[in-house]
């Protein structure tokens, strides 16, 4: 029996025209954290709601721990969910909020109290148990939401952008806290986010969605190093994408002037080349790796702290961004180079071409 | 305090959690009220005049009820020798205790029944999709526009034919289904975040459990407002009791004291005492529930 979650060809339509999910196939093994990432409206929350049983898929199959749960009642799925805006019961105390799922499944009072105390210790809520949600900070509210989800000891924890209502500093702390919690619990987690950092740091694997379609599912390292298509490349890591053509072993601008010489020549085609901002560096003629050099003009320099983000317009008219150590470039003309093996090439449909 | 709050939300739509603090830049109610106090003096004078006009007969009633016989028709507002004699005569002449018990039973049972029926109906109309839900809502709205007087005669005939006149059942049952209550609560339920209801569903709560254990505790402001409307109108109701009652057995306070006023038409002080007794519970109840009541109407809510 396969543990974890298998979604096969899951389709969800709202009304005749709105296709929220188009044949999405993703899987998450037991004990693994899968992050679903994509821009708003990409269908990631819909997929999560289908897994939770709050929405019914129009087509496809959802298996949880090997059993077909596509249309099963939410309570039978041994899943629990944490909501973006906490969704706590405002009239109940923290303790009563956490306890509620146990009351519903008729767990005896003595055992309930013990389990609430245990969860409260785990989530550092012990001193807040008698408060009402309105008296808590955002981070505490979300810990209550997590506590209410964990109390039934679900085999799958579903999280819908649990950090996006928190302010930036708290979000970073909570992210670390969640990461430690996931490791401690060993529960299967499906984590929806629009934040690429959360997706990459928390996920054992990442599934990228756009317009209801799965773009790529792979480990964070793989998704980042070898994005399967243009969308994934630009969404995770804000890759520079330059449109042009491939001809005679060169990647060329649309009007045909060569920009980059490719390692492995391809047949002539329109294409798109991708360069991560952090892979660009000041041109260095003595570099040992095969590399290409680009020449352009600095439009704008943004200080990020330890680095600067340089907005550059190439002679060909293409625009790109480069993350460079502070002081590497000043205004005016710059020469930047990038290792050839760091280049990404996408065909006319936006699909990755291995160089 | 209440004036300031109310004036700000006079046009507010009934829904929880929507009302914003008056000033997004962080200035709270305090400064708004101070500003109002400074610039709105003419308005407050006008409102005070209105209040005097409204309260004067009420004060006159209360003061007269404490006057001895020889002072009742004097022009003093305040009694020179205050006395409880008039109250004594009321209790001696009519079973005031029974009227009160009847009134408490009738208004209490009406309100209880209205809540039991209106809460599930309002939840269904607000949050569930079913065939005919729009029609049902339309009918509820239509029913809110029908005054009691329109349906009184057919209802009376119904009760008369069934032999149910002149008892508590005939006093209570016509009011158990409150279209106004359904509509008021529906508007409130519309504002409850969907996620909270989803969470309840995932936690294993049925619709029925969700309504009573999750939604109802959240609706306290709206319920309090509805309680005041319902209890005041049925406590004071004279029209329907006067149709169905013919004896003292099931008489409520207004019906009882009107019978008293007819029989003791010369004893003005006693009539005023009976009237004071009739409104006393409402005034006390309103003062106790005032904070909730205003909140229910204003429909501000604690930030979530």
UniProtKB/TrEMBL annotation, chain A:
Residues 5-236 form the ABC transporter domain. Keywords: ATP-binding, Nucleotide-binding, Transport. The keyword Nucleus does not apply. InterPro entries: AAA+_ATPase, ABC_transporter-like_ATP-bd, ABC_transporter-like_CS, ABC_transpr_MalK/UgpC-like, Mo/tungstate-bd_C_term_dom, NA-bd_OB-fold, P-loop_NTPase, Transp-assoc_OB_typ2. One of its GO terms (molecular function) is ATP binding. It comes from the Bacteria. This is ABC transporter ATP-binding protein.
TrEMBL record, chain B:
It comes from the Bacteria. InterPro entries: MetI-like, MetI-like_sf. PROSITE patterns: ABC_TM1 (PS50928). It is a multi-pass membrane protein. The chain crosses the membrane at residues 44-63, 99-123, 135-159, 171-189, 210-232, 268-289. The keyword Secreted does not apply. The lineage of its organism: Bacteria, Bacillati, Actinomycetota, Actinomycetes, Kitasatosporales. Belongs to the binding-protein-dependent transport system permease family. Keywords: Cell membrane, Membrane, Transmembrane, Transmembrane helix, Transport. Residues 1-26 are annotated as: Disordered. It is found in: Cell membrane. The keyword Transcription regulation does not apply. Residues 100-289 form the ABC transmembrane type-1 domain. This is Carbohydrate ABC transporter permease.
